[in-house]
Amino acid sequence: MALSRALRCCQRVFSWIPVIIISSVVLWSYYAYVFELCFAFTLSNTYMAYLLIFHVCFIMFCWTYWKAIFTPPSTPSKKFHLSYSDKERYEMEERPDAQKQILTEIAKKLPIFTRAQSGAVRFCDRCQVIKPDRCHHCSVCETCVLKMDHHCPWVNNCVGFSNYKFFLLFLSYSMIYCVFIASTVFQYFLKFWVGDLPNGPAKFHVLFLLFVALMFFVSLMFLFAFLLIDLCGSYFWCGLFNLKERSCFSEAFSAPVFQNGPDRNGFNVGLSRNLRQVFGEDKKLWFIPVFTSQGDGHYFPLRTLCESENPLLANEGKWMEDGGSDEENENGPSVIIRMES
């Protein structure tokens, strides 16, 4: 037991290494750009403008990165956990078919559309919770995460319902940060090749700034493009790439299963609504890392189904009257998204 606890402690310590690496590179880039580039050379009006734009990009990058790291993943509310009596009844039953029937009876009180590949209600034995739609268990965080996308080692956190917007903004501002540095440093890279750049420590900082900025930009561009394709759905991106809206790594490789079978496009409700689900209704807040996503993360609008077509939603009103989602108390007011045909 003590050895297992020590291993888990070491794992948690080592999991922060990628974050430390990114933070160190960013801090070095700040020093190299501000002190070695702007202050080492003549500080003209052009450099004052560079410094202003640089600090705006730097602040937004740090803000979004902080939010992506330290926003805890949203977990299913208590309504999706088995009660003591249901848990006892489920564990005492040894027949798989009987266990499946018990979960089906419990799920009738919950807003659930998706099923497991076998057709059974999705249930996590480790968390003892009936999984809401798009919810998956993260083996790193050791918990079920609402609308789980993937576990990202570079933020040491699960990307899911609570921080999906922050992660997208983090990628966006990271690329803007890299592009700005590369575009303003490129002229000194040219001077280096023709021998016009004076010798000194600033020379090497400037050269490394360009290479690091370009390297990070290319890496981030592929991940951001993949997430953007997933988010925007079939209206534009899928016309080019023949892809559908889905949650990046969890649904891109395993289509959600509905009562009528698997459907990779099941949660695609169009470009506009897909964007509003993540960024909210107020477009003035889209580019600011404050939580504005719609819903409470427990259920999402579907492309083809409506509430009346799903028997599992017959008691949704009762589910809400009995207390609704505990996420409302934990993460602020929730916005209920009604299904539309």
UniProtKB/TrEMBL annotation:
Transmembrane domains' residue ranges: 12-35, 47-66, 166-186, 206-237
Chain ranges of the Palmitoyltransferase DHHC domain: 122-228
EC number: 2.3.1.225
Keyword annotations: Acyltransferase, Membrane, Transferase, Transmembrane, Transmembrane helix
Nucleotidyltransferase in keyword set: no
GO MF term list: protein-cysteine S-palmitoyltransferase activity
Annotated region (Disordered), positions in chain: 317-341
Catalytic activity, reaction form: L-cysteinyl-[protein] + hexadecanoyl-CoA = S-hexadecanoyl-L-cysteinyl-[protein] + CoA
Membrane topology: Multi-pass membrane protein
Subcellular location: Membrane
Enzyme class, broadest EC rank: transferase
A GO cellular-component term linked to this record: membrane
Pfam families assigned: DHHC
Family: Belongs to the DHHC palmitoyltransferase family.
Domain remarks: The DHHC domain is required for palmitoyltransferase activity.
UniProt protein name: Palmitoyltransferase
The organism of origin for this protein: Sinocyclocheilus anshuiensis
Gene: zdhhc15b
